[in-house]
Amino acid sequence: MTVETSATPVRWEQAVIERIVPRTPRVTSVFLRTRLAPHVAGQHVDVRLTAPDGYQAQRSYSIASAPGTGLMELAIEQLDDGEVSPFFHDVARPGDTIEVRGPIGGHFVWRVEDGGPILLIAGGSGVVPLMAIVRGWSAAEPKTSVLLVYSARTWEELVFRDELLSIQAREADFTFIATTTRGARHRPEDLDRRLDRPLLHEILTRWGRSPREIYVCGSNVFVEAVTSSLVLEAVPPGLIRTERFGGKD
Q1: Regarding beta strands 97-104 and 13-24, do their DSSP bridges make them parallel or antiparallel, or are they unpaired?
Q2: What Cα–Cα distance (Å) separates residue 211 from each residue in 119, 120, 143, 208?
Q3: Domain final position from 50, 72, 104
Q4: Which residue, of 123, 142, 202, 241, has the fewest CB within 10 Å?
């Protein structure tokens, strides 16, 4: 994951794995007990693993949990050629201890006082920091609208899908639209094509609001395509905040 961050904290802390919850076939949530400072929605932490021979591997993972909820949730996608993610999918168990530092990041964050309307656009596991924003928004009960547009290959690969459907059912100001690139839509309001400029235009027209805060997260290719389309749709570039996931985990 490549992110835009503030100065990285230098202090590593011990964190204990409280529980591990599968989300999709390739994404698992790891819940940590940690003494780190409270985070802001959109931030991430560094994770460091040390092998018995002293070899260390370090990666960054976005925080999925809302601020102030106790346990810290990291939703980690397994990459076949990764060094760190396979540990959390195949080896880690509740009670294990890992090293973490953070929270990190000051640009890709949302606070209640930032207001809205809020436009969130996620590609694949890029939904993780946006989930923290959705959860934080829901807990704060602000009077502002949120639209989450989430692109994944199939319905089964939409991380946090059932929770997002539940939030939409109870929050009148929250709209969740899924678009799947390799599978059929499951709801009339969803789509089953790639998220390009014409599709973004259709979605934004349907929403009918002018976003004040925009967050885009996903792969480098996804983020570049979405941000370019938004600018072509006359969205001021200064409103768009981006975070890119990439590299080996």
Answers
A1: antiparallel
A2: 6, 10, 14, 10
A3: 104
A4: 202
